[in-house]
């Protein structure tokens, strides 16, 4: 197997050991996503409490980002993913067997933590293993297979749920996690360009956060908005359909069409970022998502909402792998996994905050006001990404990789915009 110091791995080489386990893992958790609320209500929880239990997945992801980065830095990607699977399996079994909604809440929270650890380890692994000129395509493909798995999971779980009840979805997820963990054990070794956590002088978590505070404050803020926009579209599109009086089936079809367009664009988005730079995908993606939310008040029926859903799908598809790619670009060689843990937390905070923003503005004013607010967030995200994402990174990375193929891989544009000889963005 080609090693990193000989040029890095290609997408084809990564397929069986990276993308296949990710697809299997995402499929399992896609099967679980629709039934957590049903499990909670089945245990006597009110709709509000059931929604809170389902939201604990996101809380677990937010809380698990930084610890996952420390684990990856100390024990490596492979062991962290196996540990995540080892924690995820009993959590899924608990979801099947518990008879108290409080215990279900704990198990769901643990599922969020395992998801954060798995995702962070996979991100760090690809950052180290893939050829620099293929980085965006590698990351967007990882995001794409995850979306495909999440989309397919409910369909694969439905027949089992029909036979076994709600617990069947957790059984499907448990099998998927076990299979994914087995595949992870086949990962090729990755020669890291970062020092090991046990190396004298290796930076600790707080040292990494201090040294990269500027990046997290600037680009991290933009990434938080990206996460909020992505999550907001998943909430506001169905709500707007309900407000228009559309049937659940019609809303589901519109949502599915939007998701289908989204899934078709993950590889073209990565290719665009690799060939022309990250801004060429980042800025249009956020502008389109913002525009789609701004157009929602003009949607007078199913046709108009379908058009807006298509625009959302294109915008979200263009952003496939964007967060992981930029995070890999700006991550420092020393303490990289710890930095990526903080980076992931920025995105997860946005993912959790998007629906909360919609709910708060809707409660205080109206759903129209919420749509306009999210549209403004999209415009702001486009401006911040246009300012802080380094220009021409893709071509510079590819050229330096060719010139220094036998030396250490380029660690990215630096711990903060403008470092390591990079051009100050803006």
UniProtKB/TrEMBL annotation:
Topological category with respect to the lipid bilayer: Multi-pass membrane protein
Region feature Disordered, mapped onto this chain: 394-426
Main location group: membrane
Gene3D superfamilies, per the entry: MFS general substrate transporter like domains
Annotated compartments: Cell membrane
InterPro entries given in the database record: MFS (IPR011701), MFS_dom (IPR020846), MFS_trans_sf (IPR036259), MFS_Transporters (IPR050171)
Sequence ranges assigned to domain Major facilitator superfamily (MFS) profile in this UniProt record: 1-393
Residue spans crossing the bilayer: 20-41, 48-68, 80-98, 103-121, 160-187, 244-267, 288-314, 356-389
Keyword vocabulary terms for this entry: Cell membrane, Membrane, Transmembrane, Transmembrane helix, Transport
A matching Pfam family: MFS_1
PROSITE patterns named among the record's database cross-references: MFS
Name this protein carries in UniProt: MFS transporter
Organism: Actinoplanes ianthinogenes
Taxonomic placement: Bacteria, Bacillati, Actinomycetota, Actinomycetes, Micromonosporales
């Amino acid at each position: 197997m080609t090693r990193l110091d000989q040029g890095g791995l290609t997408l084809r080489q990564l397929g069986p050991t990276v993308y296949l386990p990710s697809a299997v893992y995402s499929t399992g958790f896609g099967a679980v996503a629709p039934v957590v609320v049903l499990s909670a209500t089945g245990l006597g929880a009110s709709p509000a409490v059931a929604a809170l239990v389902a939201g604990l997945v996101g809380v677990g992801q937010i809380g698990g980002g930084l610890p996952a980065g420390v684990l990856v830095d100390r024990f490596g990607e492979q062991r962290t993913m196996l540990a995540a699977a080892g924690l995820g399996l009993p959590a899924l079994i608990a979801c099947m067997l518990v008879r108290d909604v409080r215990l279900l809440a704990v198990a769901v929270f643990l599922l969020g933590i395992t998801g954060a650890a798995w995702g962070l380890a996979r991100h760090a692994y690809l950052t180290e293993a893939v050829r620099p000129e293929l980085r965006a395509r590698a990351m967007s493909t990882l995001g794409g297979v995850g979306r495909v798995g999440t989309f397919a999971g409910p369909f694969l779980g439905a027949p089992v749920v029909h036979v076994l009840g709600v617990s069947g979805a957790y059984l499907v997820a448990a099998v998927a996690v076990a299979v994914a963990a087995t595949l992870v054990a086949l990962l090729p070794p990755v020669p890291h360009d970062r020092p090991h956590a046990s190396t004298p002088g290796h930076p600790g978590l707080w040292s990494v956060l201090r040294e990269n505070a500027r990046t997290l404050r600037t680009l991290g803020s933009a990434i938080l908005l990206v996460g909020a926009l992505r999550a907001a579209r998943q909430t506001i599109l169905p709500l707007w359909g309900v407000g228009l009086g559309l049937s659940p089936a019609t809303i589901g079809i519109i949502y599915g069409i939007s998701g289908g367009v989204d899934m078709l664009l993950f590889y073209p988005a990565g290719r665009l970022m690799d060939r022309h730079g990250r801004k060429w995908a980042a800025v249009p993606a956020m502008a389109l998502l913002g525009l789609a939310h701004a157009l929602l008040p003009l949607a007078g029926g199913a046709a108009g909402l379908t058009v807006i859903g298509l625009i959302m799908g294109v915008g979200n598809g263009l952003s496939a792998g964007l967060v992981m790619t930029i995070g890999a670009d700006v991550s420092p060689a020393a303490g990289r996994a710890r930095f990526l843990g903080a980076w992931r937390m920025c995105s997860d905070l946005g993912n959790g905050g998007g629906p909360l923003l919609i709910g708060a503005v809707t409660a205080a004013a109206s759903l129209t006001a919420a749509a306009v607010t999210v549209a403004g967030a999209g415009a702001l995200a486009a401006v911040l990404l246009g300012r802080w994402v380094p220009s021409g990174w893709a071509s510079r990375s590819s050229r330096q990789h060719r010139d220094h193929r036998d030396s250490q891989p380029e660690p990215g544009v630096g711990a903060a915009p403008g470092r390591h000889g990079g051009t100050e963005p803006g």
